[in-house]
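Why run this: before we spend reagent on co-expression, it is cheaper to look at a predicted model of the complex and decide which construct boundaries make sense. The entries below are exactly what would go into the expression plan.
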Amino acid sequence: MHDKRQPVELAKSYLLLNHGPVALVSSASHGRRNVMAASWVMPLDFDPPKVVVVVDGRSYTRELIEASGEFALSLPFRRIANKVLAAGSISGREADKFAHTGLATFPAGQIGVPLVRDCAAWLECKVIPEKHNQQRYDLFIAEVVAAWADPAVFSEGRWHFPDSARRTIHYQAGGSFFETGRAFECANE
Amino acid sequence: MHDKRQPVELAKSYLLLNHGPVALVSSASHGRRNVMAASWVMPLDFDPPKVVVVVDGRSYTRELIEASGEFALSLPFRRIANKVLAAGSISGREADKFAHTGLATFPAGQIGVPLVRDCAAWLECKVIPEKHNQQRYDLFIAEVVAAWADPAVFSEGRWHFPDSARRTIHYQAGGSFFETGRAFECANE
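The model came back. Tokens follow.
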């Protein structure tokens, strides 16, 4: 399987996260790698684009991000939601979570962290060190240094999901998700 | 119109924001009040519950939040999306945005800030002062001190949207939104 990806202009990369989808956070350092699911991730700024993400202090992902200063966000399609849930059910210290979950990867462009296949879009991120936020709130601020999207679902700054299987997803709790739903337009009155 | 609301247990209030909906951020100080729309809002912690929200440094909302140390998040139903968009189109310094947009209010329980009617849920928040985050990133961290939901759409820790008009919404850009879509369950394998 070869994932198609087109670059997304950095100043428009916030549009990928603006609607609040689930992200897979991947990380790597010195030959070790991991992936976790995150709902607590959002844009923080437009240009240069920044994001914030919450990463638990005890997690293996945290260890790898603090070692490398990098992470990637991959926005999973609904059709791999079962793997997204599985990525939240074990620790990467116990087993290679990519192998365990069946999440396949391909290389990032600007950072040394794998991106996850079968996703709608990808953001490559470099941590802006903010020790107080990281230690007190498990909150990481990062600059987006590259962004990509599958042109079948996102192009010219807009999402256009062709089918249910290739929609982004939103997490509720206990294995329950929402698909990103119907688009609608409002006019300023 | 009388909005029905039931209290949501504080430790479960993160569930209201977990799926990434648009929020109306209302604020008040010394007889002045305002409301803005925000997509850049998410949970930060479970218990005590915290949230983060980005509030532009030049906004009237920012002035009121910094004066009072409080704000409320109201999660609008799809049926008032046009008013949500209108709330983003003028400054509260120019006109009373509640009057301008037709967004009606009712009193909060724990804070002196109005909640917005015709919404799915509400979170009452007190700012945890973090000057560096506020000044450098326009990022506010707050503790959730009370939470409420319309039992027609949220009860026992789960969303159950009865119809399209009463779904929460997610912002794309340029007046384009998504409804919160179909729910689906995954089982851990």
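The longest strand of chain B covers residues 139-149. Chain B touches chain A through 52 residues (CB under 8 Å). Bring this page to Monday's planning discussion.
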